[in-house]
Fold:
Amino acid sequence: MKAPALALLIALSLPGTALAQAYQCRVPDRIELPRPPRQDSTTVRAPVARYTLAVSWSPEFCRSQRGRSANDYQCSGKIGRFGFVLHGLWPEAAKGPAPQWCALEPRPSAADIRANLCMTPAPSLLEHEWAKHGSCMAVTPAGYFKVAGILWNSLRLPDADKLSRREGLTAADLRREFVRRNPGFTESSVGLQVSNGGWLRELRLCYDKDFMPTACPPRGFGPKGTVPLKIWRGL
Structure:
């Protein structure tokens, strides 16, 4: 990792408020490790030009997924309740397909999973994100999760539950609230992913190769301006 990027990550390690999205999160004493990830697409090796931090709105995910898995930590309420959670940190190429599936090993340890379960409350997702994305930017799962965690902890996430009650809520309203809380960002660096019904699914935060917020590419930026936005409460 280059010196400017390392210096930024150290600066970002100051306490943020992202973990406040995990309400009373309690990590279990014992965790059943997931099955090894199954590579679902081809390996792509390319220089990393930028990054995407995908931040999911958990209530929207859970309203259709709750109860589907015996080890459902995210949606069952067994270890706490969750607002925004980290989906993953994704390296991106300057053009063309993103780097992916660079290695399936080493696998995350139980300690790796436990240390990050309140950030990403799904062991199988932590394993998948490392294998598909993290292995193309870090040597070990612990190294990947450390970088992702520093970025995650630096965020001051908006109160989406409160925003959901705003009459006439738009995509611009959410972006403005995020930027107000995170002055290093501009609205152009906050992508949104929504469902077909206009419900918020994810924030897609865009960083350059030195982990500085940067404008997102037009593709995948999501709804703009006064496009109506809905947020499932579910907390």
Q: What stands out?
A: Confidence is low (pLDDT under 50) at residues 10-14. Strands lie at 22-23, 50-57, 81-82, 84-92, 190-194, 200-208.
